[in-house]
Structure formats: C-alpha cells, structure tokens
Specification:
The structure is a single chain. With 349 residues, the protein is of the alpha/beta class. It contains twelve helices and 16 strands. Helix 2 crosses helix 3 and helix 8 packs across helix 9. It is globular, with a radius of gyration of 24 Å. The two termini are 18 Å apart. The relative contact order is 0.09.
Length: 349
C-alpha cells in the first residue's frame, strides 16, 4: 500500500447518508488528518455537518482540501463543474463506491488522487480506476515526483509525456540523486535524446537554466549545516545560506534539510531558515558531530571548547548527509552565523 507520507493530509470524507458512515470511519483511519463531513439531517454522527451539498463541496474545493465523496461520481461532477479552472492547482477529488469496490480519481490525479485511490483500493480490496495515461503506460507521472523532489519547469511536463507515450526519443541525464522512480518506470529513455524531439530529463542539484527542451528536476541531495550565536537575526542566517548556495553554483530546490547542533534546537533563526526553504530542521548532539571531525575542512578548537565538537555547520551537514556524503562547501561565516553544505549520494528522505 502507498505509504502515509505519500498521501495528502487533511482530506475530507464526504458522507450523504448513514449507510456510508462505516466506510467513512475506515477511511478516516487510513488517511492522515482526515475528517468526516456529513449531511447534517442524515448523518449527525459526522465530525462536521453541512446543510447543502453543492455549496459545501465548492467551498472545500476552493480551500484546496482533498475530497473523497462516498457517493455517485455524478454528484461530485455536477457540484464542482462551475469552479473548475486550472488543473495544475486543483486538489484531489475522488468518488468512492459505498461498498468500497472502486476508488475513482476524478480530479487532481497527479496531485494525490491517484495515490489515495491506490491506498484505498489496497486497504479495502477494491479497484483503483486510474485513467491518466502516464500512470497506465509509463508507470509514472512526471508532474508528481516523490516527496522532496522539485520540478523546476512544470510547463514542459505535457509535451515530454506526450513524446514518451509516442515512443519518441527522450534522454535521461542524471547528475545527482538516484531517481529510481524514473529509471525503474515503464518509460523508455534514450541514451542521447537524439531524434525527432531532442527532449531531455535532467536530474541535477546544480543551479542551471533549463532550455526549452529540458525538463529539469532537483533531487533532495543537499544539506545546509548551520550555526549561529544565541538570538542571531533570521535575516542574517538566511542571507548567509543564500550566499553559500549561490557561490557554490547549487540549486536551492535541492536543499533537503537544515541541520545544526541540538543546542540550537530552539533557535528562531534556524527554524526560520528551514521554513523559508520549505524543508525540515534536524538537530544532532555534540557527540554525533564530533565523530565527523576527520571529515571537517575547518575544525576549530574554539568551537570544541564551546560546544563539545570541532565544527557545528560542517559537522551537522556531514552527519545529515550520511557516511557516504561529502562536504562541497566549507564553512562560510557572517558576523554571528556559519553555514556549510554537504551532498548526499542519493536522495534524502
């Protein structure tokens, strides 16, 4: 079954009658952060009640909440038709048969609906009615890379998918990460990309400007190791990190996490940086960072006396990147902060 981390959170399970409530309860246990919304006059046991189905559905859709309707697909289609616009921004919408026999992604297939359908079908012993061509024939959706991966130019997804479906030459060039989701799919990539299309899928953690024939992915391979004085300004750390990334020629989209020593686990600047980049913050104790000393570029006895390890920024970056990771940007400093960058050999979870 699809892992919970691959499923959108905060789904709404829509129930219009009491006979669907037992299935709704099962689905709520399957989907993280989900709630049951029920037609108030018929399903008073629901977490949230509503009086009018159409307006309620449209409000949920506009808010971006994934919707699982335990009802006929036509009800969802007619209710949402007036608000359909840009498919790239629509949330997942699925019709689930009341007996659990079918899970049908209606909208947002590549935004989580297909993943939800597969998870629901696996849990209930039903069928996932997947209809998107890329999923069926290629075994992948180019606009739905795994968590942590960043697609730089989504406008090219449609023509590249069309080229693959037509059997045209599309090259796969891998500079960083380990895109098994691409390599192990049913897509037949060429070695050169030569031919009638010249399309290329480039996987890199470098900062590159993709041309009009290159679909660009940034894998989550980079770790920002940081340190700072107590109460350092978030702006200072953010500017230092941006300088370290830029001077190294690296892609901000490949930053997988921000790492530091556990003494900084409550430091506002560190958490602000992680939030700004859109990645988690991870903290290591001094003993873990001290084990990285042989790999440090700028070990410091002063830092050791203050923290119990010879390097915070470099040590944290290397610890998070793992034993096969490498330091690719030695520590840089500002008045009150430090930053270093390490690269992991594969995509970081």
């Amino acid at each position: 079954m699809t892992g919970d981390r691959d499923l959108p959170s905060g789904a709404v399970i829509l129930v219009l009658g009491p006979s669907a409530l037992p299935l709704a309860v099962r689905l709520k246990a399957l989907l993280p952060g989900s709630t049951i919304h029920g037609l108030a006059r018929r399903v008073p046991e629901a977490d949230i009640g509503f009086d009018e189905t159409g307006p309620h559905l449209r409000t949920l859709f506009d808010s971006g909440r994934p919707i699982l309707g335990l009802c006929a697909a036509g009800i969802l289609i007619r209710a949402l038709a007036p608000v359909l616009d840009d498919k790239r921004s629509e949330p997942p919408v699925l019709a689930i048969a009341e007996d659990g026999s079918a899970a049908i992604p209606l909208l947002g297939g590549h935004h989580g609906a297909n993943a939800i359908a597969r998870a629901v079908a696996a849990a209930l012993g039903g069928a996932a009615a997947i209809t998107t061509a890329g999923d069926l024939r290629l075994g992948l959706a180019l606009d739905a890379p795994p968590p942590g991966w960043r697609l730089a130019n989504p406008d090219l997804v449609r023509p590249v998918t069309a080229a693959l479906l037509a059997g045209e030459a599309v090259a796969l060039k891998i500079e960083a990460g380990d895109p098994a989701w691409l390599r192990d799919s049913g897509a037949a990539f060429s070695e050169s990309g030569a031919g009638s299309t010249g399309w290329t899928l480039l996987v890199t953690d470098r900062a590159v400007a993709a041309d009009e024939r290159t679909l660009l992915y940034h894998p989550p391979t980079l770790v920002l190791g940081v340190g700072c004085e107590r109460g350092a300004a978030p702006e200072e750390l953010a500017e230092l990190a941006a300088r370290a990334i830029g001077d190294s020629g690296l892609a901000r989209g490949s930053v997988a996490l921000v790492a530091s020593i556990d003494l900084k686990s409550d430091e506002a600047a560190v958490h602000a940086l992680a939030d700004a980049v859109g990645v988690p913050a991870r903290f290591f104790d001094a003993a873990s960072l001290e084990r990285e000393t042989p790999r440090l570029a700028t070990p410091s006895d002063v830092v050791f006396r203050e923290t119990g390890c010879h390097g915070v920024a470099e040590g944290a970056a290397l610890a998070a990147a793992g034993p096969d990771g490498a330091l690719i940007q030695a520590k840089v400093k500002s008045a009150r902060a430090t930053c270093a960058i390490a690269r992991a050999p594969g995509a970081l979870d």
